[in-house]
TrEMBL record:
<keyword id="KW-0812">Transmembrane</keyword>
<feature type="transmembrane region" description="Helical">
    <location>
        <begin position="340"/>
        <end position="358"/>
    </location>
</feature>
<feature type="transmembrane region" description="Helical">
    <location>
        <begin position="91"/>
        <end position="108"/>
    </location>
</feature>
<comment type="similarity">
    <text>Belongs to the binding-protein-dependent transport system permease family. FecCD subfamily.</text>
</comment>
<feature type="transmembrane region" description="Helical">
    <location>
        <begin position="179"/>
        <end position="200"/>
    </location>
</feature>
<feature type="transmembrane region" description="Helical">
    <location>
        <begin position="148"/>
        <end position="167"/>
    </location>
</feature>
<dbReference type="InterPro" id="IPR000522">
    <property type="entry name" value="ABC_transptr_permease_BtuC"/>
</dbReference>
<feature type="transmembrane region" description="Helical">
    <location>
        <begin position="312"/>
        <end position="333"/>
    </location>
</feature>
<feature type="transmembrane region" description="Helical">
    <location>
        <begin position="120"/>
        <end position="142"/>
    </location>
</feature>
<keyword id="KW-0472">Membrane</keyword>
<dbReference type="GO" id="GO:0033214">
    <property type="term" value="P:siderophore-iron import into cell"/>
</dbReference>
<keyword id="KW-0813">Transport</keyword>
<feature type="transmembrane region" description="Helical">
    <location>
        <begin position="220"/>
        <end position="243"/>
    </location>
</feature>
<dbReference type="InterPro" id="IPR037294">
    <property type="entry name" value="ABC_BtuC-like"/>
</dbReference>
<keyword id="KW-1133">Transmembrane helix</keyword>
<feature type="transmembrane region" description="Helical">
    <location>
        <begin position="29"/>
        <end position="51"/>
    </location>
</feature>
<dbReference type="GO" id="GO:0005886">
    <property type="term" value="C:plasma membrane"/>
</dbReference>
Length: 366
């Protein structure tokens, strides 16, 4: 029997190797294609707006500011300001936020072993919203000037993460169930706190600003330290999750399997919680609350390249970036001259997808 088992294993290994190689090639093709799609999306999205610009003009302006070319300008000063000062920072922020929410959704779904998990689930977004509401309505962090809103939102997200961690750890080792329960409880509490701040404020304009921010907007994107910080944090998060994809695979299967593979589920969950909290805190502080990206995109990525996180993480990052940039384009132009909160656009796309997902789960369970 032993000899037969070894023979069978030996007979299967070439096929398994071919299958793995095919999946890797498939993943690389998706990553390459989505990389080209993202580059094209950036150029096209920068050119779309009240004043339309051709892709060639956009590329020339970006090339001039980035590499010092061409020597002679073939565009006007207003066009240069529109591309470089207004639209390009906004598009880059949208790509970064989309990638961040998508990969954080991947990490959270593996961490809590729940395919319906997203950054909203652990109360991180609610904490950022409470901090932002305090800054807008009551001047929290007023000494920080134009960075008061983003700083208050980031600190609110970190505070929410600390509370979730403390509550989840109070019962002993951190498990997926404790994280889910703590996140939902803290999220609802902070949602109530944000509502109280809005109700307690006498400023109708401030309440309107908070509501707009809660639904998400990239309108505050400008060149400077906040944008660069978001880009650095997002790139670092994607790199760390990609390099640690085998640990995510083990955690997604189950705690017992993770222990067998030499991975400590508790320590890994703590590290992932810290990483996701920092990343989500940074992007939500810059863009407000944008829902459904962290829920929808991971499922699309798995459908395209399978369940292995080494492929899912980069594909989800690129998909999230492309998706959110186009969602922002719709938010900018659909009701011009007014701007639609980007969270409304993502909800319009994400809500039907969620219903289809629930229906699929129901069909699979019957």
């Amino acid at each position: 029997m032993t000899a037969t088992t070894r023979t069978d294993a030996h007979d299967r290994s070439p096929t398994d190797d071919l299958g793995r190689s095919a999946r890797r090639r498939h993943g690389r093709l998706w990553i390459s294609g989505l990389g080209l799609a993202l580059a094209s999306t950036v150029v096209l999205a920068v050119g779309i707006g009240a004043i339309g610009l051709s892709p060639s003009t956009v590329v020339q302006i970006i090339g001039h500011h980035t590499f010092g070319t061409p020597a002679q300008w073939s565009w006007t000063a207003p066009q240069d300001a529109i591309v470089w000062q207004v639209r390009l920072p906004r598009v880059l922020l949208g790509a970064a936020v989309g990638a961040a929410l998508a990969v954080c959704g991947v990490a959270l779904q593996a961490m809590v072993r729940n395919l319906l998990a997203d950054p909203y689930l652990l109360g991180i977004t609610s904490g950022a919203s409470t901090g932002a509401a305090g800054a807008i309505l009551f001047g929290f962090g007023a000494g920080l000037g134009e960075n008061a809103l983003s700083t208050s939102a980031f600190l609110g997200a970190l505070a929410a993460s600390v509370v979730v961690f403390a509550v989840a750890r109070a019962g002993g080792r951190i498990t997926s169930l404790r994280l889910l329960t703590a996140g939902v409880a803290v999220g609802y509490a902070l949602y109530a706190a944000t509502g109280f701040l809005i109700f307690a404020s006498d400023s109708a304009e401030g309440s309107r600003s908070v509501l707009f921010w809660l639904l998400g907007s990239l309108g505050l994107a400008r060149w400077g330290v906040p944008l660069v910080s978001v880009l650095v944090v997002v790139c670092a998060t994607v790199a760390v999750l990609t390099l640690g994809s085998r640990h995510l695979d083990a955690l997604a299967v189950g705690d017992e399997t993770a222990h067998t593979l030499g991975v400590s589920p508790t320590r890994l969950r703590v590290r992932l919680l810290v990483l996701v909290s920092l990343c989500v805190g940074a992007v939500v502080a810059a863009s407000g609350g944008i829902g459904f990206v962290g829920l929808v995109v991971p499922h699309l990525a798995r459908r395209f390249v399978g369940a292995a996180h080494g492929r899912v993480v980069p594909v989800a990052a690129l998909l999230g970036a492309v998706f959110l940039v186009w969602a922002d384009v719709l938010a900018r132009v659909s009701l011009y001259p007014r701007e639609l909160p980007i969270g409304i656009v993502t909800a319009i796309v994400g809500a039907p997808f969620l219903l289809l997902l629930v229906r699929r789960f129901h069909a699979a369970s019957t």
